[in-house]
């Protein structure tokens, strides 16, 4: 019996043999069978753990108080692609940033980029600074200037800068001005040749697409699907935008800035939906009491509601061994980075709850960055959205096939998919 049959109470239309499998299943079946799958996964994880960054550098200008780092974790996966022998990720800006943190983030990007199916290695850059402090523009411009020799457009392995914690829209303008080029910063405004992926919510589009892809595999009518969102920042707002466009109904949402957890018995009005999507706090707080009920001041309570799909889009480790038993949703799609602990992911699988991990569900930002760097003309926003939908839909299908075929948790199948791409195992693709 297919491992996906564990979720039978939610999906009544699957075949007696288990879920419908995509055309890639036969290829994956030939790769490894039975317990060999987990053994091979362990080998791949050990190889990945033993990897060292291909490139790392710390740049400093003591006179200006500048200290920053660039780490490129891997580049082989990009061979033959349009960004050959390079790695890419965003730029983190925090006062206590360390090289070890940037290394960890670059390693994570290697996994995410591979899971997305991109011919692109993982990288991360970072500046140890307060992006709101006086004089920061001078520090930032100096950091960008010091990193210029390492950029891919200048013959290096560093794919360029982007947005992360501490990033602000003006940073794109400063970086492009300092470099006299728009080719090494992603997330730029559309008029600068960018995809403006934060404003367009392309990462949230990917998360919503992951949920839709799984539901579509099993012929579920999205108009009957009720969902919950924890965290109504940029990610949660975009998930609401794109998932509700398919007819799904927001049953509950939570965010401390809105006072906690809200429940909705009826579909949202267009005005409230739009206010939440725009993150218009004043408009949303005015409409919420008229359409919803504040059931708890604890934003964690939304995770435990009896809904079809829950999207944790706030912070790390909100579902752990301590509370995993309270999850009632039949499908969990990770919008935040690491919102479910590793052990809780496996516990959900054992209970028959489907989980789509973050590195499969939310690479929309890096997919948009890839489009921004590789498409010279045309509507880059439309191209980024199209590629995000195509890549994530395909990858969810591959993960489901592997999980079903080998009776393993989806996170294990996703890791196998990503690591196989990093180490160029052609049997998985």
SSE blueprint:
Blueprint: H1 25-31, H2 36-50, E1 55-61, E2 66-72, E3 87-88, E4 91-94, H3 99-115, E5 121-128, H4 136-147, H5 169-179, H6 197-200, H7 202-217, E6 226-230, H8 234-244, E7 249-255, E8 260-263, H9 270-278, H10 281-291, E9 293-296, E10 309-312, E11 331-333, H11 342-350, E12 354-356, H12 358-361, H13 364-374, H14 380-406, H15 410-422
How would you spell out the order of helices and strands? Answer: HHEEEEHEHHHHEHEEHHEEEHEHHHH
Percent helix among the residues? 40-55%
Number of alpha- plus pi-helical segments: 15
**Overall pLDDT score:** 90
CATH superfamily of the domain at 202-361: NAD(P)-binding Rossmann-like Domain
Portion of residues in beta strands equals 5-15%
pLDDT below 50 for ≥5 consecutive residues: which ranges?
1-23, 25-31
CATH topology of the domain at 202-361, by name, is Rossmann fold
> Biggest sheet, in brief?
7 strands, mixed
């Amino acid at each position: 019996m297919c491992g996906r049959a564990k979720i039978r109470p939610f999906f009544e239309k699957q075949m007696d043999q288990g879920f419908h499998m995509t055309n890639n299943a036969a290829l994956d079946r030939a790769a490894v069978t039975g317990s060999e799958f987990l053994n091979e996964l362990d080998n791949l994880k050990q190889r990945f753990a033993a990897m060292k960054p291909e490139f790392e550098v710390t740049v400093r200008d003591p006179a200006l108080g500048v200290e920053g780092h660039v780490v490129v974790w891997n580049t082989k996966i990009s061979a033959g692609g349009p960004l050959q022998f390079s790695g890419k990720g965003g730029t983190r800006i925090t006062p206590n940033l360390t090289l070890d943190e940037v290394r960890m983030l670059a390693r994570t990007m290697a996994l995410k980029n591979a899971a997305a199916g991109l011919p692109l290695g993982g990288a991360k850059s970072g500046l140890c600074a307060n992006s709101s402090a006086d004089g920061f523009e001078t520090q930032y411009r100096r950091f960008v200037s010091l990193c210029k020799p390492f950029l891919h457009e200048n013959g290096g392995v560093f794919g360029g800068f982007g947005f992360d914690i501490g990033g602000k829209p003006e940073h794109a303008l400063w970086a492009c001005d300092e470099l006299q080029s728009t080719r090494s910063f992603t997330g730029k405004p559309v008029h600068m040749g960018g995809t403006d992926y934060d404003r367009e919510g392309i990462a949230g589009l990917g998360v919503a697409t992951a949920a839709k892809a799984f539901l579509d595999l099993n012929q579920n009518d999205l108009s009957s699907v009720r969902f919950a969102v924890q965290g109504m920042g940029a990610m949660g707002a975009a998930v609401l935008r794109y998932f509700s466009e398919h007819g799904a109904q927001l049953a509950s949402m939570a965010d401390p800035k809105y006072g906690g957890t809200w429940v909705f018995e009826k579909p949202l009005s267009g005005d409230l939906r739009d206010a939440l999507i725009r993150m218009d706090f004043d408009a949303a707080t005015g409409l919420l009491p008229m359409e919803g009920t504040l059931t708890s001041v604890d934003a964690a309570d939304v995770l435990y509601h009896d809904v079809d799909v829950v999207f944790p889009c706030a912070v790390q480790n909100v579902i752990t061994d301590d509370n995993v038993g309270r999850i009632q949703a039949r499908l969990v799609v990770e919008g935040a980075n690491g919102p479910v602990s590793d052990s809780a992911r496996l516990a959900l699988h054992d209970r028959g709850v489907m989980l789509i991990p973050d590195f499969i569900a939310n690479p929309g930002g890096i997919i948009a960055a890839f489009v921004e760097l590789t498409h010279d003309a045309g509507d880059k926003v439309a191209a980024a959205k199209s590629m995000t939908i195509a890549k994530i839909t395909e990858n969810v299908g591959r993960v489901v096939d592997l999980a079903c075929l080998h009776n393993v948790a989806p996170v294990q199948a996703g890791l196998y998919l990503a690591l196989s791409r990093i180490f160029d195992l052609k049997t998985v693709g």
